[in-house]
Amino acid sequence: MSRALLPHDLLALAIESLWLHRMRTGLTLTGIVIGVTAVLLLTTLGEAAKRYVVNQFANIGTNLIMVQPGKTETTGMPQPLGGTVRPLTIEDVMAIAHEASTVERVAPVSIGTASFEYGGRTRDIKIVGTTADYQKIRNMTLISGRFLPPGDPRHGEAVAVIGRTVATEVFAGESPLGKPIRIGQWRFRVLGVLESKGQSLGMNLDDSALVPVATAQRMFDQRSLFRVAVQARDASSVPQALRQTREVLLRRHQGEEDFTLITQDAMLATFKSVIGALTAALAGIAAISLAVAGIGIMNVMLVSVSERTAEVGLLKALGAARAQILSLFLTEALLLSGGGALAGIALGTTIVLAAAAMWPDLPLQPSPVWIAAVTALALGAGLLFGLLPARRAARLQAAQALRGRM
Amino acid sequence: MSPAGGGSAPARPAGTGGTGPPGAEPRADGAVIELEHLSRTYRVGESEVRAVDDVSLVIRHGEFVALMGPSGSGKSTLLNLVGCLDTPTAGAYRLAGEAVQDLSEDRLAEVRQREIGFIFQAYHLVPRMTAARNVELPMILAGVDPRARAERVARALEAVGLAPRAHHRPDQLSGGERQRVAIARAIINEPSILLADEPTGNLDTRAGAEIVALLERLNAGGLTVLLVTHDPVVGARARRILRIRDGRILSDGPPESPAAAGGRMGRPPEGVA
Question: What domain range includes position A154?
Answer without folding.
Answer: 106-231
